[in-house]
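Need a sequence for this fold. Nothing fancy.
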C-alpha cells in the first residue's frame, strides 16, 4: 500500500471520488471531561463491535486508503485497541493516533512503538495539576506528562499541541507550559487558540474558550510560534476546509464515528450509518454538508461578539 496520500487523481470528472485518508473513532468513552469537548456522548447507543470495526478496516483497505488514524473519546480506553491497530497494520496502513496520553505507561508505550505509527497527536492542557483539572475535570496532569515522557524516550513521532485558555492561563502560565514541552524533548508548536461547536452544529458552549481578542493573540506569540491563521472568529473563511474535509490540501478524507455514522470531518457527521449502507455511498452524498456547517459557525460567532 502506498505510504503517501495520493492527490493526483482527485477532481477528475470521469472518476467517482474516493477518500484517501480515514479517521476511525473507536469509542466515545473518555477518562477526561474537557470543558471544550466537541463530542456529543450517546450512552444509550451501541458502539461498533469488534467484527464491525474489522469489516470497516477491510473495506478501507479494499479502496486503497493508505492512512488510518484512530481517535475517540480516548481510543486507548477501547479494550481491543491493540488488536484493532495490529490488524490494520498487517493490512499495510500507515497509522496515526489521537490520545490524551494519560493512559500511556512504559508497557503501553512499547506496544505503541511496535505499531510504527507515523503520527501520535497529543494536546497538553496547562502546566500543573490545578489548571489541568479545571480544563479536563480530572487530576491527571502528572499521568499525561508521564505518558508524554514515555513516548519521547522512544523517539516516537509525537505532535504535541498546547492549548490556550485565557480563562485559566496567563502569559506566565503559557511560558511555564512552553518550558515543560521543551524539557520533554518536543518541538514547539503553535497554540491551539480556537474551538468548535459540538458535533453537527450542536451546543456553542466550546466557543466560550476561543481567543477573540487581538491582545490575547499577541500575548500568545511571546510564548509560542504564530499560527498561519490568526483569529478564528474574526478571520475564518466559512468555505474553508478543515480537519478531514475533502478540500483539506485536496486530500479527500472520511470520518467514521464509534456508532458507524459517516462524515468528511469529525465535526460534521451524517445520521446514516455503515449498519445501513456502504460507507462510501454515504460519504459521496454527504460531502456538501461541511460548507453549511462553517457558514453556521461564522454566523453564530459574529452574533456572539
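Here you go.
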Amino acid at each position: 500500500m502506498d505510504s503517501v496520500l495520493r492527490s493526483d487523481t482527485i477532481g477528475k470528472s470521469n472518476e467517482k471520488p474516493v477518500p484517501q485518508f480515514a479517521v476511525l473513532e473507536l469509542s466515545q468513552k473518555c477518562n477526561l471531561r474537557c470543558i471544550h469537548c466537541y463530542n456529543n456522548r450517546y450512552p444509550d447507543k451501541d458502539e461498533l463491535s469488534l467484527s464491525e470495526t474489522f469489516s470497516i478496516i477491510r473495506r478501507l483497505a479494499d479502496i486503497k486508503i493508505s492512512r488510518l488514524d484512530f481517535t475517540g473519546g480516548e481510543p486507548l480506553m477501547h479494550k481491543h485497541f491493540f488488536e484493532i491497530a495490529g490488524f490494520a497494520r498487517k493490512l499495510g496502513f500507515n497509522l496515526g493516533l489521537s490520545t490524551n496520553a494519560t493512559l500511556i505507561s512504559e508497557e503501553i508505550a512499547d506496544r505503541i512503538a511496535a505499531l510504527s505509527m507515523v503520527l501520535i497527536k497529543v494536546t497538553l492542557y496547562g502546566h500543573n495539576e490545578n489548571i489541568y483539572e479545571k480544563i479536563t475535570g480530572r487530576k491527571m496532569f502528572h499521568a499525561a506528562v508521564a505518558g508524554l515522557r514515555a513516548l519521547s524516550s522512544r523517539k516516537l513521532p509525537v505532535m504535541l499541541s498546547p492549548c490556550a485558555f485565557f480563562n485559566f492561563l496567563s502569559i506566565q502560565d503559557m511560558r511555564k507550559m512552553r518550558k515543560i514541552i521543551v524539557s520533554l524533548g518536543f518541538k514547539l508548536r503553535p497554540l491551539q487558540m480556537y474551538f468548535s461547536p459540538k458535533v453537527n452544529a450542536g451546543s456553542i458552549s466550546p466557543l466560550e474558550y476561543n481567543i477573540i481578542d487581538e491582545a490575547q493573540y499577541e500575548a500568545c506569540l511571546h510564548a509560542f510560534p504564530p499560527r498561519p491563521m490568526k483569529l478564528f472568529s474574526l478571520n475564518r473563511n466559512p468555505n474553508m476546509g478543515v480537519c478531514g474535509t475533502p478540500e483539506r490540501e485536496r486530500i479527500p478524507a472520511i470520518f467514521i464515528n464509534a456508532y458507524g455514522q459517516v462524515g468528511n470531518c469529525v465535526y460534521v457527521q451524517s445520521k446514516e450509518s455503515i449498519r445501513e449502507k456502504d460507507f462510501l455511498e454515504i460519504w459521496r452524498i454527504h460531502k456538501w454538508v461541511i460548507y453549511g456547517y462553517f457558514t453556521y459557525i461564522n454566523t453564530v460567532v459574529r452574533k456572539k461578539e
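For context: The two ends are 48 Å apart (CA to CA).
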